[in-house]
Amino acid sequence: MKRVLLGLSVALLLPGAVLAASLTREEVLSATLKPYAGPTTRGVDTRTLTGKVMCGYQGWFNVEGDGAERGNVHWIKHRGPLAPGNAKVDLWPDVSELGADERFATGFKFADGRTAEVFSSFKQATVLRHFQWMRDYGIDGAFVQRFVSCLRDPRSLRHNNTVLAHCREGANRFGRAYAVMYDLSGLGANRIAEVMEDWRALRTRMRVGDDPAYLQHRGRPLVALWGVGFNDKRAYTLADCRQLVEFFKQDGCAVMLGVPTGWRTLNRDAEPDAALLDVIALADVVSPWSVGRYHTPAQAARTAEKIWQPDLAWCAAHKLDFLPVVYPGFSWFNMYGRSFNEVPRLKGEFLWSQFVAAKRAGATMLYVAMFDEVDEGTAIFKCSNEPPVGGESKFLTYEGLPSDHYLWLAGEGARLLRGERPVADQLPVRKGKLAP
């Protein structure tokens, strides 16, 4: 599905989201990149990706008045307030557990007349709570998205750095793992040096990779590069990607590559260039993007058998690890005015079928897309079954299931992956209260 190729949308493309900067880049770097000095709780084994279920964490939401001075980012599709007709998201977050200073009023109303509220990723308490949920439900941690294309702007840079610091603290406080994932989408030609410069700043100023919660793999800090080898006319080249992989390897890192579904056969969504395989062979982990590539449990099972199993064999022959991507469902009606509930969740059956298929294919690690992406309807965090009345805007629900159902199901998927529960097609039955 070509229209889902990017998967990880680029914050820079939001019109009017980033205001004119008043801070210099150096002022932002000095203020936001500090070594971690907070408490650490022992939890998951951060020495390896093997046996882990990790989530993608976008962290790209801003709201007017949140302190980031970026306006409404990723909630809206064009300039103006978050109000009926201007929502960009297809799921509405459940903010009932958030503090008063974490909730921001919108122009939407619930059916009973109450004002609907949303959150900001810029708020420390909100991000920490998200990592607490990961701990509570048995999710191992997050790949924190870092959008290279918008790091030039000081305010965007400040937001990205602030969210990364929040995630680092959340992972340390709640015994989770985190790692940096560079999303190359939207990166212009001849700009890969910016990725290297940014990583040097994170390493030398923030000491990222040195704290106990940072995810290691094969004895080295793990860094992910997403967007390698897609055939959607990206400005950067495979030669650029190779240079990046070599840079990170020389810096003592393990490298994970986010690649197209057709990477091994050089077809479908992949560049038909054998140089892609040469680049992948230099890495440590390969993770093909799956969102939108199959729509039903039966299609997921066929994908695992016909594509993932041969992918795993190729990786084994080249001494790479294989990280399949699973997702709960998909919708982007409010973003583009089409495809409402395009990939139905089936009350969790769709996501569970992928956990089972991946386990049967031989996967030893999994990536869940995504923790917080309400934009494309792929979020697994707490969302509302009673969204606001939207007029032109229309919202999915969790089909009457508890707002934490997909957090719980992802935790069950982690248990399945590690062999702590039997492999069975039947959807797990949840017992007890909402809290695990």
How much is the average pLDDT?
93
Distance between the termini: 36 Å
Query: Percent helix among the residues?
Result: 25-40%
Protein structure class: alpha/beta
Radius of gyration: 20 Å
Question: How would you sum up the major sheet?
Answer: 10 strands, mixed
Series of H and E elements: HEEEHEHEHEEHEHEHEEHHEH
Count of discrete domains:
1
Report the CATH topology name. Answer: TIM Barrel
Question: What this model shows, in words?
Answer:
The chain is α/β, with parallel strands linked by helices and 436 residues long. The chain has one domain (47-417): TIM Barrel (Alpha-Beta Barrel). It is 29% helix and 13% strand. The chain has helices spanning 25-32, 124-137, 154-173, 192-206, 238-250, 275-281, 297-317, 333-336, 349-361, 405-417, and strands spanning 53-57, 104-109, 115-118, 141-147, 177-183, 216-217, 220-226, 254-259, 285-288, 321-322, 325-326, 366-368. Helix 3 (154-173) links the parallel strand 4 and strand 5. The chain starts with 24 loop residues before the first helix and ends in a 19-residue tail after the last helix.
